[in-house]
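quick one before i forget lol
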Amino acid sequence: MVADLAAQPRISVDTESNSLHAYREKVCLIQFSTPKKDYLLDPLALTDLRSLGPIFSDPKIEKIFHAAEYDLICLQRDFGFKFSNLFDTMQASRILGYQYVGLDRILSEKFDVKVDKRHQKANWGARPLTPAQLDYARRDTHYLFALRDLLEQELREQERWDIARDDFRLACQVDVPKEKMNGSSWKRFNFRKDVSHRELTILSELCVCRDAIAEKMDRPSFKVIDDNMLLDIARNLPEKDVDLAGIGLSPKQIRLWGGEILAAVRRGADTPLVKREQPERPNDAMLRRLDKLKNWRKKVAGEMKVESDIVLPKFYLNELAESPPKTMDELQSMMHESPHRFERFGDQIYHLIGG
């Protein structure tokens, strides 16, 4: 397979992970297609995938994905792969202003191909995979060649090919999120004004408890106890199993983890308050520039019939509002990773916030 892929000018790629079924997700299947063959690779059986690294990083081989970001994060996180020369059919569809950009919808409209969406949430870490799962996985890459060529033609016709190429290059710079630390999920409640400081402290203990249970059982935290119920526990301060039942925990949850949850509530009620992070408020000048850029971006996006981030991605929006360019050369330097956006929109952006 590696020899075949390495000899191709283009390959299509997809992955399947088990994020809905494990505490720490991992890549459970990798699909490749060439114009003549479809391959399904089991990384749970073949654990040494280093021979694929040069293919992903080879600038002479175009890798076609649909919605590349998540796949690239998973492939780099699990195997350390680096990437160059991508074509993302979903991003291409967004740049063209498609109303629906899911692969199943596009394949149905363009090629009259029906995809069984039931397998999207399947447990891809289970073995054996069913014939229906294998066929679903194969279809995710099989049609990407034809779709890619159709989208490139449309991008060129609408004079958006250069912006698409900028985005494909940007996609290669994968930013893998930091691995979640056991119990740190309480911080998602940090900025909620309806959560008191003591409730937040109790939530911190409950999240440590919940994440430890989830890790032990190797299942996602939300499948142990969801966030809404965790907040109800922090607010109602249950003391006994019957109190947990009144909040809505099932008899099975109470039997398995009731004691641990009640102990976490007691710790949270007695322990010193956690440090509540306060968001930094941007200065007024920065906020004015941000509003100008957002209003301009929305107007241009409306004219192009695309979503606003196609005109100016969010990271540029914030960077330009925080550090407005003093000259056109400085703006060009700030936007050097998307030269065609600078070429198309640079004058307008500089007129808004520059100098």
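fyi The CA atoms of residues 326 and 355 lie 4 Å apart.
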